[in-house]
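Q: Given only this backbone (454 positions), what sequence would you predict?
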């Protein structure tokens, strides 16, 4: 079972890192606010995107088949994978058929979810993540801690050390220009040696059978154009019905993710070049089950911009690894329990329920409502603590009976004023561990209100 508070505690031991992580993500959130405010009709775009996603998910069977038919007409080979194992097996079989031993991969959270790297490495394939942040965490043997900025938790000095160890670079004291140049040199050789390229998919257009991949480094294009084999992995929820819908999502995605008006590279892949092969693997891996949960299905609208992470006070100060899930942060906390309720039961509680995630989400997912709903499911199904249940039903009774509520308030107020401090601290020790109890006022709010209202 994942214990988010415990993992967050470890991240919080490095106060300097926490503060800087918090600030860096807040800067991205501010950039997002600025560019979003410059787009006339931003809210209309969000509503449109949300409506298109809801419509697509309600007709997913038709759009997926339409996409498959179009993609086949374009010359792509389409595969279906029910789960992660099937996906990995298909990728390996394709690579094996082409005797491809060196593979370059651009960012794909789906392949992370499927554990593809580990699977292929065990089969003797050299798989290299080519997004710079992804390559950094791959060298560090860590998972990404953010879906857009995978190495945001790493300090420059740590990257310096990592490159020194793995790429034989000089120690530069964290000189980012030097490190980026060395990374480029290293990755360039990997592209030249590659005999297969794997990409993720940001959007798959049913009408045209095209897949669209957005990167800032051009690494997806470098991989696809330097090899004869392109494998694209996509979740079933990546479908959008028409080409004309793409502009809506592209305008929202880059602005929400990094505060850019557009990603540096927005690549449309439709047909393989003569002599090349283009494979598309459409993966379910639990998404259909999620689609069948009315309270939670809209979490499949997600376009993986990461804005909910950048704004979340809990994510910013606990780090992506504390979620121990492929997708961290608020969206991960509503997706992961759908995969394994028991394992991820602490995640919906990793939120202040402030609602900031829902406010920034470009596809208007009601994230904080879903966090709250998952809590109810978890309490109902997993928390069998009788004492806690008794306490909660007692509180529920008090809150729903005004007279009892008022009398209890008076009693608590009086007790806190007259009881010795050590007794009070003993009763509320969890609360007072990190903060002082406030001074009790002379009156309850109701008393004050009744006295002062005009
Ligand atoms: S839930 Fe919304 S804000 Fe969060 S990553 Fe997905 S699209 Fe972006």
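A: Predicted residues:
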């Amino acid at each position: 079972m994942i214990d988010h508070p415990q993992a967050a505690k470890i991240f919080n031991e490095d106060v300097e890192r926490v503060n800087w992580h918090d600030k860096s993500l807040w800067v991205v959130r501010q950039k997002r606010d600025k560019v979003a405010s410059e787009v006339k009709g931003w809210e209309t775009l969000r509503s449109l995107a949300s409506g298109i996603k809801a419509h697509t998910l309600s007709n997913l069977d038709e759009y997926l088949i339409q996409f498959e038919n179009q993609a086949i007409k374009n010359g792509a080979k389409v595969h279906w994978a029910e789960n992660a194992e099937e996906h990995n097996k298909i990728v390996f079989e394709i690579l094996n058929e082409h005797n491809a031993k060196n593979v370059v991969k651009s960012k794909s959270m789906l392949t992370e979810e499927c554990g593809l790297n580990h699977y292929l490495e065990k089969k003797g394939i050299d798989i290299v993540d080519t997004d710079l942040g992804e390559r950094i965490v791959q060298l560090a043997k860590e998972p990404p801690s953010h879906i857009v900025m995978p190495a945001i938790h790493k300090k420059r000095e740590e990257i310096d050390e990592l490159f020194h160890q793995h790429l034989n670079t000089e120690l530069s004291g964290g000189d980012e220009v030097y490190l980026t140049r060395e990374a480029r040199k290293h990755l360039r050789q990997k592209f030249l040696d590659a005999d297969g390229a794997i990409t993720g998919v940001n959007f798959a257009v049913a009408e045209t059978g095209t897949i669209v991949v957005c990167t800032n480094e051009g690494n997806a294009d470098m991989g696809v154009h330097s090899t004869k084999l392109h494998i694209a992995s996509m979740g079933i929820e990546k479908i959008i019905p028409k080409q004309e819908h793409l502009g809506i999502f592209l305008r929202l995605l880059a602005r929400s993710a990094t505060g850019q008006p557009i990603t540096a590279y927005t690549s449309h892949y439709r047909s393989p070049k003569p002599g090349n092969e283009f494979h598309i693997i459409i993966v379910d891996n639990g998404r259909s089950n999620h689609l069948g949960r009315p309270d939670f299905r809209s979490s499949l609208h997600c376009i993986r911009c990461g804005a909910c992470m950048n704004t979340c006070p809990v994510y910013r100060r606990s780090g992506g690894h504390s979620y121990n899930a492929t997708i961290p942060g608020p969206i991960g906390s509503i997706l992961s329990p759908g995969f394994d309720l028991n394992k991820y039961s602490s995640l919906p509680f990793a939120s202040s329920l402030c609602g900031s995630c829902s406010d920034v989400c470009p596809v208007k997912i009601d994230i904080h409502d879903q966090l709250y709903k998952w809590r109810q499911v978890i309490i109902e199904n997993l928390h069998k603590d009788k004492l806690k249940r008794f306490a909660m039903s007692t509180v529920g009774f008090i809150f729903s009976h005004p007279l009892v509520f008022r009398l209890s308030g008076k009693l608590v107020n009086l007790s806190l004023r007259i009881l010795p401090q050590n007794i009070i601290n003993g009763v509320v020790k969890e609360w007072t561990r990190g903060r002082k109890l406030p001074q009790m006022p002379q009156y309850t709010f109701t008393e004050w209100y009744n006295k002062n209202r005009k």
